[in-house]
Amino acid sequence: MDENLLKNIPYSILDLATVLDGETPADTFPKSLELARQSEKLGYTRYWFAEHHNMAGVASSAPSVLIGYIANGTKTIRVGSGGIMLPNHAPLIVAEQFGTLASLYPNRIDLGLGRAPGTDQVTALAIRGENFNAAHNFPRDVEQLQRLFSKENNSSNVRAIPGEGLNIPIWILGSSTDSARLAAEKGLPYAFASHFAPTYFEQAIQIYKTNFKPSAYLQKPYVIACVNVVMADTDAEAERLSNSVKQMFLGVITGKRNLLKAPVENMDLVWSVYEKEAVEQMLTYSFIGDSGTVKEKLSAFVAYYGVDEVMATSHIFDFEAKLHSNKLFASVFTEA
């Protein structure tokens, strides 16, 4: 396997603003800023926040606010949403918010859009109200956003000020095949949530690449794969640290979502055989180990799937260990 392949691959961060057991979101946000500043120095391309709601351990319910916080505290790294769950919002409001961000931080803001609610059905109903089925309007809402951002919209009765005429890259996010077709049809870059929804990853990116139509925004397909990353100086230590993210996913499948827990020494004392199987399936695209292990596995992954960029999300309890993992992950690309 040609490990030099990674030298040409951009690497980025997806942050869920994970809240640790014993802490609050107020403790979480400064850590996100420190991680973003470190990532900028390490050559990461972008730093995205994911919109989630009603989850005790996830504090990224307002990505546009966090994007401003991180962009203000950094200088060059691109900051964006991975993503804004568009059916939760009126396109005009999204255009105004991201127009404001792009005016404050020119050429640094990304707008990633998803169609899922980013939460459970009861909370989705609380957010969307009578627009509960708004996901069906996703293609139309994306078009409306594009129109609001266009210079040609200046004669419309409804205008996004700020936002109109600004170059704000729109990304389509997906965890199934539906959004792949939309991204291909519109000639937009595509980011897949393979860090928690691996089932349709290969099929979705194949659909996207096969059906891609060049556009004013993009001439050829561009795929970001988001993956779980836990790195340490040894494989054994990385495996131990990864027991935090395994407990987090166990909470997802059992419906008992808690704050991110410290790693246990033995997961077999925590989960059943069936729970282990379910969690490990969700964690299919996870890179856990030391630099050599991750470099080998990631090179094979990039070569096989032909992704253009790798975005890492790392649920690590100890913040110093998280910073170290982030540094090791960058070195996989820079020292390839």
From TrEMBL:
InterPro entries assigned: Bact_Lucif_Oxidored, CmoO-like, Luciferase-like_dom, Luciferase-like_sf
Superkingdom of the source species: Bacteria
Segments forming domain Luciferase-like: 23-302
GO cellular component: cytosol
Gene Ontology MF annotations: oxidoreductase activity, acting on paired donors, with incorporation or reduction of molecular oxygen
Classification via PANTHER family: LUCIFERASE-LIKE MONOOXYGENASE
NCBIfam families, alphabetized: oxido_grp_1
Family of this protein: To bacterial alkanal monooxygenase alpha and beta chains.
Protein name: Luciferase-like monooxygenase
Organism of provenance: Pedobacter yonginense
Upper lineage: Bacteria, Pseudomonadati, Bacteroidota, Sphingobacteriia, Sphingobacteriales
